[in-house]
Every structure is written in structure tokens, then in C-alpha cells.
From TrEMBL:
Residues 23-176 form the Putative restriction endonuclease domain. Transmembrane segments: none annotated. GO terms for molecular function: endonuclease activity. Coiled coil: none annotated. The keyword Transmembrane helix does not apply. CDD domains: DUF820-like (cd06260). Keywords: Endonuclease, Hydrolase, Nuclease. It comes from the Bacteria. InterPro entries: Nuclease_put_TT1808, Restrct_endonuc-II-like, Uma2. This is Uma2 family endonuclease. The keyword Chloroplast does not apply. Gene3D superfamilies: tt1808, chain A (3.90.1570.10). SUPFAM superfamilies: Restriction endonuclease-like.
Amino acid sequence: MSVMAETTGPHGIVQSRPFTVHDLEAMPDDGHRYELLDGALLETPASGYKHQKVILRLGALLDAACPDELEVLPAPFAVRPSVTVELQPDLLVARDEDLTEAYLPAAPVLAVEVLSPSTRLNDLNSKKAFYERLGVPCYWVIDPLEPRLTAFELGEDGEYERIVKVAGTEVFDAANPFAVRVVPAELIGRRRKA
């Protein structure tokens, strides 16, 4: 869901304006994720079991393979390149030198989004387009229901090209941003009994 902030202008007339990172500080601590994309507020509910399991397992896998000059961080650590943009990829890989204590003001080298019913549309469209525009070299999207991983890399024209789409027990031997082997089915792990 996306909405605009409202302010009261002259004579008490309400005027719409883009949200800023300062508005995020006033958002409730209600378990929802609040992000900004070009001044529009994106609100998503807390993620579920499979979503969290994928983040935990992929984060550990990436962290084990990560070179010393890079860092792997989960949401809510944010990419904040401007006052009207703050995105929290489910996982990000960034150059250590680019990080501040509070957020990443530059493009990560990898952004990962794990799809859920409430994030699917944004993850596959507006967030993907923004990461492309920001110059994020690698963008991975994982569907935990399949399980499936789709990886994109920036081409010479500055646009994302899909480099691989693997599902189940198929193997993705990533070369960028560093060498790591990912098997989508292994990201889900043990199944809970109903």
C-alpha cells in the first residue's frame, strides 16, 4: 500500500506532499515494515514463517561466502540514498566502506527480496525498477512458495537482464557479487508439521 503525507497549508487547507525519512520516525512500532519509494509510503505486514526461514538461511549462506570488504545485512537495515527513499531489502550486501551505523546511503552490490502476497507487486516492479535506476548490480527475487530464485544483473545499457531462474533442487552458482552456490529448496529447510 502506498500513501502520501498530508500537511496543513495556509488557512488550514490540507496539502499533499511526499513523505520523507523524517516522517518514518513517527510511524508506529506495530510490526509492519514502512519504506519510502520516491516519497510514497509503502506499508507491508510482518512476514510469515517461510519468508523468515528463507532470509535466515540465505543470509547465513551469503555471510559464510562473503569477502571481507563486503557485509551482509537483513532488514530492517535500510538503503537510504535520499530524503524521499528508504527501502529495506530483505537482505543486502554492501561495501563495508559505504555503510554508516544507521543505514546505507549508496547502492548495495546485491539486494534480495523474498516475495510474499503483500510485497509481490512492489518487489517485481517498483522496487526492481528503483534498484535498477540506483545502479544496484545484482538483484535477486525469491519465491518461497515454489521455491524459486530469479537473479538479475545490470547489463551494459544499465538495465536488468535476467541471468538465471532456478527452482526446487536446481543449482544457482552465482559469480556476482561473489561466488556462492544457492539451491532454492535448501532455503526452505525442514517443513513444519501442521
